[in-house]
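Can anyone check this?
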Amino acid sequence: MLARMFEQEGVAVKWKRPQEQPDMAGIAQEVIVNMVTSGSLLAIRVAVDKFRKHMHATAEATIEDDGQDDDLQD
């Protein structure tokens, strides 16, 4: 869902779907997915904010800025 939200904001995104475990006892309560995006930091933040709102605080998304968009101020 987050990847789709990035794309709707015009952000390119690369990620891999987590591998599913057939063992029901091994189901994780947390799934960590790394995504690499390129585009406007503002568009990335908009997509993440929409995702957080849609998930009603049941999911967490963290933005790590590599500093390449230094002209955009927080």
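Reply from J.R.: I decoded it. Residues 1-14+33-64 form one domain.
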